[in-house]
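Lecture notes, part 5. Sequence design as translation. It can be helpful to think of inverse folding as translation between two languages: the language of shapes and the language of residues. The source text, in structure tokens, appears below.
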């Protein structure tokens, strides 16, 4: 059953309002509170899932505080690098990947709104964050993160909550190859060329097409929030198309995190 988009949008304020009350009343926020300023003043990576990740020497960044996203665990067999936390916003990804999230030794935080899609067996093994009706950048993770068209915006809010400075982006290609409308759901055909793994969204599975314009608006809010606090977001994505943040090279990123030097 496909729910009309008009119905989804018209009920959005009510749904988010109810979720906010339910989150404040029932959610265990201990794990979220533990992340507060965990890496205050330290460089941190925010690692996306674009195909450029296959060209990124993550191995050289092993041990650097990082926020990973969605199905980043598909990268673990290739590198010693691991994120400090993983965030997932999309309901479909939560439903598809919940067993992996529940088994993760790395803290995984998923949107509270997706909890009904998680099996009872897994429900208490995940950590949750609330999402606000507004897309405003939130500096208080316990209250909730500003909504977005991209999980990277959630990751940037998480990194801010964790005290990171600067944040360095990898794998945020901001470029997708697909046909049809943006911000819709489609059934995958063929290998997945939009992510670092061809089976990221396997053929026949559902994925949500991106809304790059809205993502850019959200990224601009993130940049403003960081700069207002004297912090920076830098983009080291190899051949990335995003133009919101200052660009740096991989070598510059290594120097920032203290792993650079004469070769």
């Amino acid at each position: 059953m496909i729910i009309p988009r008009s119905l989804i949008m018209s009920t959005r304020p009510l749904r988010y309002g109810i979720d906010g009350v339910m989150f404040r009343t029932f959610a265990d926020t201990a794990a979220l509170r533990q992340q507060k300023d965990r890496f205050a003043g330290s460089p941190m990576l925010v690692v996306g899932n674009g195909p450029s990740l296959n060209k990124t020497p993550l191995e050289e960044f092993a041990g650097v505080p990082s926020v990973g996203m969605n199905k980043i665990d598909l990268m673990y067999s290739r590198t010693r690098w691991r994120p400090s936390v993983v965030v997932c916003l999309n309901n479909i990804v939560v439903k598809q990947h919940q067993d992996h999230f529940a088994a993760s030794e790395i803290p995984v935080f998923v949107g509270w709104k997706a909890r009904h899609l998680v099996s009872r067996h897994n429900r208490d093994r995940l950590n949750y964050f609330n999402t606000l009706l507004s897309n405003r950048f939130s500096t208080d993770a316990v209250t909730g993160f500003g909504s977005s068209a991209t999980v990277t915006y959630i990751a940037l809010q998480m990194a801010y909550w964790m005290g990171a400075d600067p944040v360095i982006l990898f794998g945020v290609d901001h470029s997708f190859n697909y046909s049809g409308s943006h911000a819709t759901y489609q059934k995958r055909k063929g290998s997945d060329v939009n992510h670092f793994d061809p089976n990221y969204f396997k053929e026949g599975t559902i994925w949500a097409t991106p809304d790059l314009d809205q993502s850019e608006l959200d990224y601009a809010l993130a940049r403003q929030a960081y700069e207002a606090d004297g912090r920076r977001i830098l983009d080291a994505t190899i051949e990335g198309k995003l133009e919101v943040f200052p660009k740096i090279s991989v070598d510059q990123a290594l120097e920032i995190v203290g792993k650079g030097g004469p070769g």
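The translated text above is only one of many valid answers, since several sequences can fold into similar shapes. The mean pLDDT is 93.
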